[in-house]
Amino acid sequence: MSEAAHLVEYTREEPSAWLMPNRPDELNAFSDEPVTALMERCRQCDADGDAHIAILHGNGRAFSA
């Protein structure tokens, strides 16, 4: 499992791809590692022929600090 799989989860419910930052203890704050993971997940979504829209949704009580 890559670091992106832990820091930003990716699920798909056709036609939507859900990208979810997964650092609820840090209020999903972005730093270099989560940004890199998000970019990797965006590339995954771009390559996913069944995903027509990407939804960014935070895990926990905050979208992002």
Provide a descriptive summary of the structure in words.
With 65 residues, the protein is of the alpha+beta class. It has one domain: GMP Synthetase, Chain A, domain 3 (2-Layer Sandwich), CATH 3.30.300.220. Helix content is 32%, strand content 25%. It is built from two helices and three strands, in the order αββαβ. It has helices at residues 3-7, 32-47; strands at 8-13, 16-21, 53-56. A three-stranded mixed β-sheet has the order 1-2-3. Strand 1 (8-13) and strand 2 form a beta hairpin. The longest helix is centred in the middle third of the chain and has 16 residues, at 32-47. The radius of gyration is 11 Å and the shape is globular. The protein starts with a helix and ends in a 9-residue tail after the last strand. 18% of the residues are buried.
List keywords for this structure.
2 helices, three-stranded mixed sheet, GMP Synthetase, Chain A, domain 3, alpha+beta
Any low-confidence stretches, pLDDT <50, length ≥5? none
Question: How many strand segments?
Answer: 3
Rg, nearest Å: 11 Å
Number of domains: 1
The appropriate CATH architecture is: 2-Layer Sandwich
Profile the largest sheet: 3 strands, mixed
Q: Roughly what percent helix?
A: 25-40%
Sheet/helix structural class? alpha+beta
Order of helices and strands: HEEHE
Structure annotation, total helices: 2
Q: What is the CATH C level class, in words?
A: Alpha Beta
Averaged pLDDT, please? 91
* Rough outline: globular
Euclidean distance between termini CA atoms? 26 Å
For the biggest β-sheet, the strand order reads 1-2-3
CATH T-level topology: GMP Synthetase, Chain A, domain 3
Strand fraction: 15-25%
